[in-house]
From TrEMBL:
Residues 338-452 form the Mannose-6-phosphate isomerase type II C-terminal domain. It is an enzyme of class 2 (transferase). It comes from Aliarcobacter vitoriensis. Residues 3-273 form the Nucleotidyl transferase domain. This is mannose-1-phosphate guanylyltransferase.
Length: 457
């Protein structure tokens, strides 16, 4: 059985923790592990291999976090455009044998009852061997209005899928006892799913086959932009599951959470004696029942209750508990003002290492750059900025206009706008430099790449 791990989604309801370039599935929220890593650990006990479906940026995050788990021989499929779950799953299934059973899971869900999880997966495999499409219905614990529901009949048969209900309808679902939260997890043979997709959504099926046939398949499967653009966007529920007559639902009481909001995150984090989330940077004076999140600065609270306080260094969120679904509106307003706060943290992860913005103002930006051993940045130039590099630790190999030289600790160099250059770390130790950018524009998109080890555009 292959675990198809869907890494799409930006987790906007967990801003400012979650950003486009560091979405919630890769943020280490639980026991210094990310939801993605917990997903891999959980499912690798049940599956023979992992197939990660993501975009190019998330691929490098997944690669790093799988290396931390010492998980090797993983497969990757990279989408150039997100087109929802139906095309993502179709492309993944096209890369597998038609009789391979796949377990399709999001990368950002938390499941705490792994013993029960194993039992429901084994039951799902039984149905999958019988050429059924299996979905998992989460036994609801309260009247949730933020999830879709699955209505069952005769234990495992699906009567209907239902959209997100209002509170009155959700309450009636809870009382009925044959309604389940739609988990977004599935199990089936790759060929059976593709057959049903061809029957009920032929355009997605046909365009996916064309895209897959045209894809680069050297080390990883890369779907071309123009082929991905031609595939209609749709979810697996709308495209197949709600139309097919071979669907089964497994009732699943597995202590599941989609960790889709700060309110749901609060329920999962460890609490102190005052029912505040445990945070060693938090000084609490008569404060109770609060979610306090912050890693760098001290957060002091006095006489507050039922609040969400999230400090990410470059942004501060304060919300009443119960209102955190509205965080998406904050992200929308940030996009309207062309802010990058929805997109990236002060520290950005790259396949070669990390950079942290130390200070930024009109005309300049100061960064701390750390390059991993034996890694190098792309060969590039900038139109609008000049760069000053100072080596803090390690040895830098610098290339500027076809000339190479070494920089040791406390040595520096200057690169003019328009010069083609590259920074490399050819040693076995991390390289740390301070980069001072000076120019009319210091945005991250002022990069023209000529060569790149990681095949970025």
């Amino acid at each position: 059985m292959t675990n198809i791990i869907l890494c799409g989604g930006n987790g906007t309801r967990l801003w400012p923790i979650s950003r486009t370039l560091m979405p919630k599935q890769f943020v280490k929220l639980f026991s210094k592990k990310s939801l993605f890593q917990l997903t891999v650990e959980r499912n690798s006990k049940l599956c023979n291999s992992q197939l990660v479906v993501s975009n190019a940026e998330q691929y490098f995050l997944a690669l790093d976090q799988l290396e931390e788990l010492n998980k090797k021989n993983n497969k990757y499929l990279l989408e150039s455009i997100a087109k929802n779950t139906a095309p993502a799953i179709a492309l993944a299934c096209l890369s597998l044998d038609e009789n391979e059973i796949v377990l399709v899971t999001p990368s950002d869900h938390l499941i705490k009852n792994e013993d029960e999880y194993k039992k429901v997966i084994e039951k799902a495999k039984e149905f999958a061997y019988e050429d059924k499409l299996v979905t998992f219905g989460i036994t609801p614990t309260f009247a949730e209005t933020g999830f879709g529901y699955i209505e069952s009949v005769n234990n495992f048969d699906v009567k209907a899928f239902h959209e997100k209900p209002n509170l009155q309808t959700a309450t009636s679902y809870l009382k009925a006892e044959n309604y389940y939260w739609n988990s977004g997890m599935f199990c089936f043979k790759a060929g059976v799913f593709l057959s049903e997709l061809k029957k009920y959504s032929p355009e997605i099926y046909n365009q996916s086959i064309e895209a897959f046939n045209n894809a680069s398949k050297s080390e990883i499967i890369r779907i071309k932009y123009e082929d991905m653009a031609s595939i209609p966007e749709n979810s697996i529920d709308y495209a197949v599951m709600e139309k097919s007559n071979i669907v089964k639902v497994i009732p699943s009481n597995i202590a599941w959470s989609d960790v889709g909001s700060f309110d749901s995150l609060f329920e999962e984090l460890e609490k102190d004696e005052n029912f505040n989330t445990v945070n060693f940077n938090h000084i609490s004076i008569d404060s109770k029942n609060n979610l306090i999140y912050g890693k760098d600065r001290k957060i002091a609270t006095i006489d507050i209750e039922n609040l969400i306080v999230v400090d990410s260094g470059d942004a501060l969120l304060i919300s009443k508990k119960g209102s955190s679904q509205k965080v998406k509106k904050v992200v929308e307003k940030l996009k309207e003002t062309n802010s990058q706060l929805h997109n990236i943290h002060l520290t950005g992860n790259r396949p070669w290492g990390t950079y942290t913005v130390l200070e930024e103002s009109n005309g300049y930006k100061i960064k701390r750059i750390e390059v991993k051993p034996k890694k190098r940045l792309s060969l590039q130039k900038h139109k609008f900025r000049n760069e000053h590099w100072v080596v803090i630790s390690g040895v830098a190999t610098v290339e500027v206009d076809n000339k190479k030289f070494l920089l040791n600790e406390n040595e520096s160099t200057y690169i003019k706008a328009g010069q083609i250059h590259r920074l490399s770390n050819n040693t076995n130790k991390p390289l740390v430099i301070i980069e001072i950018q000076v120019g009319s524009y210091t945005g991250e998109d002022d990069i023209i790449r000529y060569e790149d080890d990681f095949k970025r555009e």
